[in-house]
Specification:
This protein is an alpha/beta fold and about 280 residues long. About 35% of the residues lie in helices and about 20% in strands.
């Protein structure tokens, strides 16, 4: 029995869809039921801030764990959830982490990995490259309305990956087909953000400008456009390694090794999501 947290998010929703297509029974956990029409997905209420909702783990053998963007106090929410997982007999945690997390002690993912290790839970850490979908969610409005892509990454390169590919590997880990305790997962596209802006310009047939402000200016920019302060700080923590060349994937793990196909390409993603960035 698989429980998927963050089931309405980029990766979680792809995981539920894969389970549906393959006939795998899974539990889509979250604060709202968005899965009434699925045949193979059961909904259970789960809110990391509501400890009583950890009852959702009853009968579960494996959990796909995603940190909600608003959660920064790991000891207040994620740690009690992990304790509940152990008490309910969960056999494995597959945690969606980030590429290079072992060098980023200031991001919440680092603390969550340490907490999973401390509790002695069997696990796979999916240390994923930068989601392509961040461009169609977090950055969608600035691209669509202001024709700009703003990130404090300088000329550094980022290795991107599609949420669908992460989900496919995550399902295999949950089902016991992947036993690695940590796994760097990245696609084949490594780009600077200036190159990303140029590709967006080509697809949208209008000029998209990349801006790389200093950290303080970036935080002020995000706050001015509605980003909560804590989330803006987390964005800085994730983006700054790119500026110093730490977001490029230099490992040997390939998506094709696990999925038997090439990863979704960046250009394919842009064509797939194009309508999100079209002026309304």
């Amino acid at each position: 029995m698989i429980l998927v947290t963050g089931a309405s998010g980029n990766v979680g929703s792809e995981m539920v869809s894969i389970c549906e297509r393959k006939g795998i029974h899974c539990i889509a956990a979250g604060r709202k039921n968005r899965w009434r029409n699925y045949k193979h997905a059961e909904y259970r209420y789960l809110d990391f801030e509501d400890h009583a909702s950890y009852e959702a783990c009853r009968g579960v053998t494996a959990v796909f764990l995603v940190r909600p963007p608003q959660v920064s106090n790991i000891q207040k929410s994620i740690a009690p959830f992990l304790r509940a997982c152990k008490e309910y007999g969960v056999e494995k945690i597959v945690f969606l982490s980030i590429l290079g997390v072992e060098k980023l002690p200031f991001v919440p993912h680092f603390a969550i990995e340490k907490e999973i290790l401390r509790r002695g839970l069997a696990h796979t850490f999916l240390r994923a490259g930068f989601f392509m979908q961040n461009l169609s969610t977090t950055h969608a409005r600035e691209i669509r309305e202001r024709n700009e892509l703003v990130a404090p990454c300088g000329k550094g390169k980022t290795t991107f990956i599609h949420a669908r590919d992460i989900a496919g590997i995550g399902i295999k880990a949950l089902c016991g087909e992947i036993k690695d305790e940590s796994l760097d997962v990245a696609g084949e596209d490594t780009l600077t953000y200036n190159e990303v802006a140029k590709k967006l310009s080509q697809v949208l047939n209008r000029k998209i400008t990349y801006r790389s402000p200093p950290v303080i200016a970036f935080i002020l920019y995000r706050l001015r456009h509605g980003t909560p302060f804590k989330f803006a700080l987390i964005m800085v923590g994730i983006y700054m390694p790119t500026r110093f060349g730490a977001a490029e994937f230099h490992g040997t793990t390939k998506v094709a090794d696990y999925l038997g196909r090439k990863p979704v390409g960046f250009d394919d993603f842009l064509r797939e999501e194009k309508e999100i960035w079209v002026h309304r």
